[in-house]
Amino acid sequence: MNIGICDDFPINCDIIETLIRQYGEENNHIFNILTFSSGEELIDVISRESVSFNLLFLDYYMKKLTGLETAKKIRQLELTGSKPACGIVFVTATDNAYELMSVHPIRIIRKPISPEIINSILTCVLSEKM
């Protein structure tokens, strides 16, 4: 399973990645995890390389493209048929859930992130893939 994590603060990417890897070790799953420091970097990799993701964790507030703007661009790529659909999880410190729903995320989670929330998301996504 390919998982992308996009946050302009590296420590947040590290926390999510660590929680995902712990889940993988405990549940005998191997995840291919790529981290990105901006929405632009993520969109560039998705557009130019033959990389697709099963699941993306997107921070809402980033310097240029917000997580929502990034998700909208990803959904546009999916609509053109150039990329398969992926699950999106927004990671945010705000209560702007209504706005985020426009790109059909599978979850919106608030910081700080707990292992239980990550475990729940991964269990759900893996059960749908099997």
CATH topology: Rossmann fold
Question: Biggest sheet, strands in spatial order?
Answer: 2-1-3-4-5
* CATH 2nd-level architecture: 3-Layer(aba) Sandwich
Distance between the ends: 11 Å
* Low-pLDDT segments: none
What proportion strand?
15-25%
Bulk shape: globular
User: What is the typical, i.e. mean, pLDDT?
Assistant: 92
Structure annotation, total helices: 5
Question: What are its keywords?
Answer:
Rossmann fold; alpha/beta; 130 residues; 46% helix; five-stranded parallel sheet; 19% strand; 5 strands
List the helices and strands and how they pair.
Layout: E1 2-6, H1 10-27, E2 32-36, H2 39-48, E3 55-59, H3 67-79, E4 87-92, H4 97-100, E5 107-110, H5 115-129
Parallel strand pairs: 1-2, 1-3, 3-4, 4-5
Structural summary, described in words:
This protein is α/β, with parallel strands linked by helices and about 130 residues long. The protein has a single domain, classed as Response regulator (Rossmann fold, 3-Layer(aba) Sandwich), CATH 3.40.50.2300. About 45% of the residues lie in helices and about 20% in strands. It contains five helices and five strands; from the N terminus they run E-H-E-H-E-H-E-H-E-H. A five-stranded parallel sheet has the order 2-1-3-4-5, sandwiched between helices. Strand 1, helix 1 and strand 2 form a beta-alpha-beta unit. The mean pLDDT is about 90.
